[in-house]
Amino acid sequence: MIKQMFSGKRLGLMGFAIFLLVNTSALFAQASMESLVEQGNEAYNQGDYRKAIAFYEQTLSMGQHSAALYFNLGNAYYKLNDVAESVYYFEKAQQLNPKDENILVNSAFAKNMTIDSIEELPQSQIEQFKNQLYGLSSLDTWSVITVVLLWIFVGLFLGYLFSNTVALKRSFFFSSLIVLLLFLGSFSITFSIDQENKNTHYAILFSPEIEIWSEPNQQGEFLFTLHEGTKFQLLDDLEDWQKIRIANGSEGWIRNAVFRKLD
């Protein structure tokens, strides 16, 4: 009995020690990442943009990803006139914080450095409404709203089942019906955004110049040329060829291009 007690205490102490070790390591890692960002900011303010980038990228390699960090990298590369890197990191920042005014403005400045001037296709009213609706919240927020509405519906429906008076039953029934409709709408939006994110892939071109062909071979028609920093949508791939679409709706095939996905 005594041996079992001591054994239990030993296991408890070991578990507590492991808990402290894990949490202490996490705190040190967080402090280390914050220190790197601060050093990067200091280097940036001193005009040493390459040193700032080194600190920021070291922070990224430690698993720290945020709109602010991508924004800082975009600014540093912009100062070095590195078009592709600057556009890429501003796009990454926009993915995490699409409504931030500073990110939108600086991203526009970076895109102005690109050689290719591509006008976006005008959107229909339905597309504009859909984008505005989807843009109200992130996928994570829509997911939370959907789950919360589901639990509210369950609670109201249980109230309907177990209420004793006709007035309460009617109240719970109509309330649960309204919440059910809201849940179905929220679920549809969440599912649509998730599917769109999975099936739509964008990238930034890092090749200085690349030719666009009508077919995945050079016996097809040469269409046009793109330059570094241009954003395009990936549609398909065949061996070392990729089919792409640019903002104005033009499509074609590229071969052996250097690009970086925005997933």
CATH topology group of the largest domain:
Serine Threonine Protein Phosphatase 5, Tetratricopeptide repeat
What's the helix-strand series?
Answer: HHHHHHHHEEEEEEE
Number of helical runs?
Answer: 8
Overall number of domains: 3
- List unreliable stretches of 5+ residues: 15-29
Hey, roughly how much beta strand do the residues contain? 5-15%
- Note the main sheet: 5 strands, antiparallel
Q: What value does the average pLDDT take?
A: 85
Residue share in helix: 55-70%
Estimate the global geometry from the Cα principal axes.
extended
Radius of gyration from the alpha-carbon trace, in angstroms: 26 Å
Number of strands: 7
**CATH architecture assignment name of the largest domain:** Alpha Horseshoe
Summarize the structure.
This protein has helices spanning 2-45, 49-61, 67-79, 83-96, 101-111, 125-134, 139-162, 166-199; strands at 201-205, 209-213, 222-227, 231-238, 241-245, 251-255, 259-261. With 263 residues, the protein is of the alpha+beta class. The N and C termini lie far apart (58 Å).
